[in-house]
Structures are given as structure tokens and as C-alpha cells.
Amino acid sequence: MMELSEKEQKIFDGETNEAARQSMEILVALGKIYGAKRMIPIASAQISGVSYKTIGDAGLDYLKDLVKKGAKVAVPAFLNPAGMDIAQWKDMGIPEEFAKKQKEILIAYQAMGIMRTCTCTPYFVGQRPKQGEHIAWAESSAVSFANSILGARTNREGGPSALAAAICGITPEYGLHLDENRIADIVVEIQCRLETNADFGALGYAVGKLVKRKIPAFTGIKSAGEPFLKVLGASMAATGSVPLYYIKGITPEWKVDDDAEKIIFSQKQLDDTKNELDSKAKPDLVTIGCPHCSIDEIREVAELVKKKKPTCAFWVCTARKIKENAEQLGYSKIIENAGGIVVADTCMVVCPLEEMGMEVTGTNSGKAAKYLPNLCRQKVAFGDLKDILYR
Q1: Is this model's pTM higher than 0.90 or not?
Q2: What pLDDT was estimated at residue 1?
Q3: Secondary structure string (H, E, C) spanning 153-209
Q4: 27-62 pLDDT, tens per residue?
Q5: Pairing relation of β-strands 285-293 and 184-191?
Q6: Which residue from 55, 112, 122, 125 is spatially nearest to 83, judged by alpha carbons?
Q7: What range does the domain containing 260 cover?
Q8: Is residue 172 located within the same domain as residue 256?
Q9: 344, 320 in Cβ contact below 8 A?
Q10: Per-residue pLDDT tens for 218-251?
Q11: 57 and 156 co-located in one domain
Q12: Residue 1 to residues 4, 29, 40, 161, 185: CA-CA distances in angstroms?
């Protein structure tokens, strides 16, 4: 049985408001399922279930009901990407009815005191938990980055459980909140060249399928900046539900079981994976930023398209704060002059691309390549930016 503090018991008994009671009920049920003995305080929450495409009218009604019941968050909380850029949805070609519903969803979240920071890379806009800090994050790539690169502690929360954690300020102590569950059980020795986002995306796509829910530890990766690391983790989370990984000499933790299985990942495997993901078709639209781009990635795109205009339309997806920075630095103007658009707080995977006349979407993201065919009914043109922008 879970032990609740006096304050937690009062919330559970409905002595605050109905939204808090309902949220505590969700957390207690979750804790019982996974054998948690107690609740632990969290420093922040990231909530999924933001795009109208993914939650629909039922999800919107659920959020409005929570607002009526007095829901307010107890810790800093922010959102996963929405289904459109709230300021540029017409430029993106978003249907008007979709836009109306999406705005209502964001209004409901804001009424609960949640920041309208809709991003899968909150760590690029100041939301960087400390090593060992407990959080309740929901988006799979953000969970991977927080656990692996920052050394924070979070399970992959569902939308309702992350929202419940934000309202109550706590989460059940189980899974990756516990030391004994943060040990790698498979070592992947890298014997291939890793030079681009597409390389790291394809590596993550393949390794995620190989290890499934295991925790991998990599050797042989000599250097990798945060943009490459986010892509690697995102791809493994998409194909294998991998919430945590280690890289020897790079990640802050290195915890490997003495009896861990060992496998080799070769150049042939990387090349085969890239070929598997690529339809070879010319894209109707190229989408960059899954997970959301850092300012350095936007600069690289601007430098590339300044030299030569791409042969198709393209989006660069990022957080609102990063977009504002890109505008100040002149990167957005360069991208617009080349036929592109920097869009904020959204992602190609949760946009209604299939309703916008798109059939082939280009990407250098292993995560996007995994989800675009099923969620958006798209053929994928996968590769390095120099390939997909000028195909």
C-alpha cells in the first residue's frame, strides 16, 4: 500500500478542490500499479496531449472540465508541441476549424497556470532540471534527454498523469526515479561514422528497434553536441520506447550491468537503415526540427539555404523563444527569402499534413521518419539536409 503524507491524504479526500482530488486519484492508482511506496515532490512537469490532432474533442472536453473544477498547477509546467504555430497557422495552411479547436486547448491549459511554452526541447529555453532532480515529463524525446544528458529522473508520463503530477506537485516513486532501475543492460559498440543529424537519427532508429525497452550504453562515440544527442535519444524513444541511455565519456552517468549483453553497430547497418527510411521521392515539404531545433541548428540551415535556394518549401520547427532569437539574429529572414518558414511551438508529426495536400515529407529526423507514415499518412524522404532540400 502507498503511504500518503497528511497533505496528500487531504488532497485525496477532496479537501482542496475536485480537480486536485481527481488528479491525486490518478497518481495513487498509477503508484499502486507499479508498486510505488510513496509520492515524491517534482521540480517541473511537461504535459503531452496538446495537439487537437491527437486529443480531439474528447480531450478538449476533459481539459475544460478540469478548469471548471478548479485545476491549478503547483509546480512550473509547460506543454508539448501543439498542432500549429498559434501566430502563423494561416501561413502554414492549417484548416480554420482545426485552428479554432487548437486555440481552445491552449486557453484551457493556460487557465490552469501552465506556461504556453509548447516544445519538445524545453532544455533549450531554460527548463533544465539538475542532475538527480525528480520531474514528471511526458514527451518521449524530452524524457530521454532529461534522464540521459541532464541526469534528471523521470518516467515517460502519459498526458493525464503528467497533468495530474503538475496539479499536485508530486509523482509516485517508481521506475527511473529509483537507482536500481537506471542500469544499462546492453552495450552498443559503435563502428561507423557519425557526422550529421541524419546519421544520429538513423543510429537511434536502428538501435531502438534492436534493444526495445532495454537501457543501452554506447562506446565508440568520441564526441557529440546536444543537438546530435537529442536526435539520438528521440529516435530510440520512437522505435524502442528507450527512456534512458549512456555514452561513455559524454553522459553524466555511466551505470552498466557487469553481465550486460554486447553488440556491434557497423557502417553497413547505418547505411542500410538510411536506405530503409528513404522513399527516394522528391518531397512536397521538408520539415526540420524533430525534436525542435536549437539556435545553432537554425543558423546552420540559414547558412546552407543562403548559398542555394532549396527546390521545395520547408519548415524549421523550434520553440517560440528560440524563434524570437533567430529573428533577432537575422536567420529567419534568410530562411524566408529561401522559401522556408520558421514555425514555433509545433511539430510536423502533430500537424494535419494529410489535410493540407502533402504526400511526401522530407526530414533528417529518425523520430519523424518513424511517425510520419502512420500519423500523417506521408511517404518519407529521409537524408542529410543537402540531399532532401535539393532533391
Answers
A1: yes
A2: 75
A3: ECCCCCHHHHHHHHHHCEEECCHHHCHHHCCEEEEEEEECCCCCHHHHHHHHHHHHH
A4: 999 999 999 999 999 999 999 999 999 999 999 999
A5: unpaired
A6: 55
A7: 183-273
A8: no
A9: yes
A10: 999 999 999 999 999 999 999 999 999 999 999 9
A11: yes
A12: 9, 11, 15, 19, 30
Cα dist. 122→73, 92, 145, 294, 312 in Å?
18, 23, 10, 10, 29
* pLDDT average, residue stretch 116-126: 93
Give residue for cell 474533442: 57
* Spatial contact of 316 and 340, defined as CB atoms under 8 Å apart: yes
Greatest alpha-carbon pair distance for the chain in Å reads 64
Grid cell 537506471 — which residue?
182
How confident is the model at residue 213, as a pLDDT?
A: 85
Which residues are paired to 247 by β-bridges?
218
Task: Answer yes or no: do 347 and 376 share one domain.
Answer: yes
| Boundary of a domain, candidates 117, 150, 178 | 178
Mean pLDDT of 195-207: 97
Do 79 and 104 belong together in one domain? yes
DSSP tag of 364 = S
CA neighbor of 181 nearest in space, from 214, 221, 203: 214
Residue 188 resides in a domain: yes
Question: Same domain for 56 and 96?
Answer: yes
CATH number for the domain spanning 125: value is: 3.30.499.10
Residue 1 lies in a domain: no
Give the β-pairing of 285-293 and 360-363: parallel
On the question of pLDDT at 132 being above 90, the answer is: yes
